Amino acid sequence: MRIGRYYQLPGLGDYAIAGLKLLIVAAFIVLAWGLINKITKFDDHHALFEERNTAYALQRGGLVLGQAIALTSLISAKDDTWADLAWLLLRGVGILALLLGVRQLLPYLVPFDPEAGQTTVSVGLVHGAFYTASGLIIGAGLTGSAPSLATAIASMFVFTLLGLAVLAGAYLGNGMVRPYRLAERVRAGNLAAGLISSGFLVALGLVLHNAIAGEFTGWASGLIGFAVTALIALAVFYLLCVAVDRWVIENATLVDVVEGDHANAGAVIAVALVAIAIAISAIAI
């Protein structure tokens, strides 16, 4: 703990609480892994370790990463009492429930057949990115404070669901933009389309995290701020795609990258999208 310019060492109680928080996070990750193993219609161990299905590994890895990101917002809070651990447990259950809800939604957004082998790596990549972005959004909804417990719970669910809706809507909207047809190409196994879509999802998740996180200042201001940030983010991302198309990829266009399934170029575009999202998230307005 820092007091002015001096550093005060934490006490044993602080270390004990920190250790318990880490154990709780690990327990929730193990619980989620076990639950999914139970509810899947196939043998997860066989798919991951015997078939070595990269697509399914990307999907499961993204889920673990998204869960850890969401839980980080809880363990980073300055909880000074043992009673706060019970609240952490309750919110951890909420995070798990929301991510399992996302898992139910994903097959409708991006059809996925875990038994199709390596031909669906692009789909697994997008699923993993969607889980990661969802973790950013869910974690943001758990930050800050509100005037009352009821308001805190209501705002958490409203803004989290809005963020997830924007994420899903943006992905579906990208799929309708011609001549790219990213969603269609992802389902067909186009790795470049999968990389670009994944970069876009994570980038949008970062910006939406910034739009949602923080203190609750009122419904009107909160909803307006969320809407404005989301619209600006989408506009900037599309402008970035135009800039990359014209000035970065000199010997080809984005259409060429996607149609030719140039995975290396797709990876560069994905990184550029995440990089601009980090810059947008760092801007304090």
What does this structure look like?
The chain has 285 residues and is mostly helical. The chain is 76% helix and 1% strand. The chain has helices spanning 12-39, 44-50, 54-75, 83-109, 121-141, 149-176, 182-187, 191-212, 219-248, 254-259, 263-282; strands at residues 2-3, 6-7. The protein has a two-stranded antiparallel ribbon with strand order 1-2. A hairpin with a 2-residue loop joins strand 1 and strand 2 (6-7). Helix 3 (54-75) packs antiparallel against helix 4 (83-109), helix 5 packs parallel to helix 8 (191-212) and helix 9 packs antiparallel against helix 11. The longest helix has 30 residues, at 219-248. The relative contact order is 0.09.
- How many strands in all? 2
Relative helix content: over 70%
Average pLDDT for all residues:
83
Could you spell the SSE succession in H and E letters?
A: EEHHHHHHHHHHH
Helix/strand structural class: mainly alpha
Helix/strand layout:
Elements: E1 2-3, E2 6-7, H1 12-39, H2 44-50, H3 54-75, H4 83-109, H5 121-141, H6 149-176, H7 182-187, H8 191-212, H9 219-248, H10 254-259, H11 263-282
Antiparallel strand pairs: 1-2
Helix pairs in contact: 1-3, 1-4, 3-4, 3-5, 4-5, 5-6, 5-8, 6-8, 6-9, 8-9, 8-11, 9-11
